[in-house]
């Protein structure tokens, strides 16, 4: 049986311009043999969801350091649902206070990686939880 | 309902999934492609190729905007390289064009080369077909950043654009064989930079040296600054000129026949190879020959002769 190549979208929603973390994670996925669609900075939730659907990715990894995570991340999950694409898993990383994590998870975010997480852990999580 | 039917009804997710099935080599994909084939052949295919960092993606973004202004639906296939070591890839062409992502008249798909060396992926032609069946008027195919000899794009696109930038080499580079021979349109991008005039001059001189019969297409050298949108309208107008030339001169028939012949022979080659290969791999012949070659007790020339004599006309079905 032919095997699926895992595809992941890495993007930065909103207005902060700090993309080093997103690039490091994208590179780690590449080295783990994934195809990474990197959409870059300043993406709206609408653009992220449209890109994820057109690219038929298995999951979306969002990096956010602006503090707007409680607004932008649930919006991505909501739009995915609207497009009947909630099978595309969303995870995120960035400066996210512990107190906000339960709320994000109940809005549909599958996992939240806070500062200090190693790239190995993120790759391992994706390989274990995301199936093409 | 199957993917093909859903695609013909405008289902975006079905289209995206079939592209994935094609790329991943699923056998079911060719069943769907068979159903879409009668609905293809309508889109105009524009190829964009050139060295890494020349501004291809930014140019695609601007060309897309220009075609959208004209009311055309635009499909984009953007190819980036696969790592030869890990099989992974970073597909970053969308960074320059993602402002079009939520425009319903645009569909962008990033593909990795997955080991294919001609500047596009093996799946590119089929992905273009899916977009064609979706009703895209124009499909822009952006190759990986190429060097001198990755020219598969010329067989695929009606109009091939070679994007150059100032400062890449002297006029001897410009008369070498390879990608400079395949352009229907040359673009010197970043035309505000030092040396742009010289690059334009050298390319034009190279073109004048070539022998042309009356009525042959003469590629123009266009100047653009893609990041500021300069020269884009002129470029799109030149695409229209080339398209008119193809249809009025009859060159389109030769192009189409050569393209279709290449597609057919490639597909035949691949399928025949797979059938023979799977068979001799399964019955152990393949392994025996390879070990025989190590001790020189078997030579590959005779081995291939006997494989072909034994299997060519009655290849048994291999169950998947």
Structure description:
The complex is a heterodimer of chains A (132) and B (320). Chain A is of the alpha/beta class and 132 residues long. Chain A has a single domain, classed as Cobalamin-binding domain (Rossmann fold). In chain A, 41% of the residues lie in helices and 23% in strands. Chain A has helices spanning 20-31, 45-55, 69-82, 101-106, 119-129, and strands at residues 7-13, 35-43, 59-64, 89-94, 111-113. In chain A, helix 1 (20-31) links the parallel strand 1 and strand 2. The radius of gyration of chain A is 13 Å and the shape is globular. With 320 residues, chain B is α/β, with parallel strands linked by helices. Chain B folds into three domains: 1-37, no CATH class; 40-249, P-loop containing nucleotide triphosphate hydrolases (Rossmann fold); 261-311, no CATH class. Chain B is 47% helix and 13% strand. Chain B has helices at residues 3-8, 12-23, 27-36, 56-69, 94-97, 124-133, 153-156, 171-175, 196-209, 232-249, 251-282, 285-294, 300-311, and strands at residues 44-49, 74-80, 89-91, 106-112, 138-142, 159-164, 185-188, 220-223. A seven-stranded parallel beta sheet of chain B has the order 4-2-5-1-6-7-8, sandwiched between helices. Strand 2 of chain A pairs parallel with strand 3 of chain B, so a sheet runs across the interface.
Oligomer: heterodimer
Structural class of chain B: alpha/beta
First and last CA, distance of chain A: 13 Å
Distance between the termini of chain B: 24 Å
Strand order of the largest sheet of chain B: 4-2-5-1-6-7-8
């Amino acid at each position: 049986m032919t095997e699926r190549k895992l595809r992941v979208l890495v993007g930065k929603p909103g207005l902060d311009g700090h993309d080093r973390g997103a690039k490091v994670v994208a590179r780690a996925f590449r080295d783990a043999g994934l195809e990474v669609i990197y959409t870059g900075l300043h993406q709206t939730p609408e653009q992220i969801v449209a890109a994820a659907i057109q690219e038929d990715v298995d999951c979306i990894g969002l990096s956010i350091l602006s503090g707007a995570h409680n607004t932008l991340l649930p919006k991505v999950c909501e739009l995915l649902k609207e497009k009947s694409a909630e099978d595309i898993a969303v995870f995120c990383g960035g400066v996210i206070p512990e107190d906000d994590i339960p709320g994000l998870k109940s809005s549909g975010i599958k996992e939240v990686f806070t500062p200090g997480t190693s790239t190995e852990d993120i790759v391992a999580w994706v390989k274990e939880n995301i199936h093409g | 309902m199957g993917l093909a039917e859903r695609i013909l009804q405008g289902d975006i997710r079905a289209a995206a999934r079939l592209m994935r099935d094609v790329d991943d080599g699923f056998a079911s994909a060719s069943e769907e492609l068979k159903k879409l084939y009668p609905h293809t052949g309508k889109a105009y295919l524009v190829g964009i190729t050139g060295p890494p960092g020349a501004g291809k993606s930014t140019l695609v973004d601007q060309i897309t905007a220009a075609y959208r202004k004209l009311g055309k639906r635009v499909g984009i296939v953007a190819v980036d390289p696969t790592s030869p070591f890990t099989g992974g890839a970073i597909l970053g062409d969308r960074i320059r064009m993602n402002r079009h992502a939520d425009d319903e008249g645009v569909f962008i798909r990033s593909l990795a080369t997955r080991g294919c060396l001609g500047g596009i992926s093996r799946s590119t032609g089929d992905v273009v077909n899916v977009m064609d069946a979706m009703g895209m008027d124009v499909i822009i195919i952006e190759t990986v950043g190429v060097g001198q000899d990755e020219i598969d794009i010329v067989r695929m696109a009606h109009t091939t654009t070679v994007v150059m930038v100032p400062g890449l080499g002297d006029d001897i580079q410009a008369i070498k064989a390879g990608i400079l021979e395949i352009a229907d349109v040359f673009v010197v991008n970043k035309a505000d930079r030092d040396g742009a005039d010289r690059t334009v001059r050298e390319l034009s001189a190279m073109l004048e040296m070539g022998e042309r019969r009356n009525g042959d297409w003469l590629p123009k050298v266009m100047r653009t600054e893609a990041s500021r949108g300069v020269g884009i309208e002129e470029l799109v107008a030149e695409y229209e000129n080339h398209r008119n030339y193809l249809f009025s001169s009859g060159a389109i028939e030769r192009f189409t026949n050569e393209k279709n012949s290449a597609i057919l022979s490639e597909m035949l080659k691949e399928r025949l190879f797979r059938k023979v290969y799977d068979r001799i791999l399964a019955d152990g012949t393949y392994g025996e020959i390879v070990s025989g070659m190590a001790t020189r007790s078997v030579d590959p020339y005779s081995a291939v002769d006997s494989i072909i004599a034994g299997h060519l006309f009655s290849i048994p079905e291999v169950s998947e």
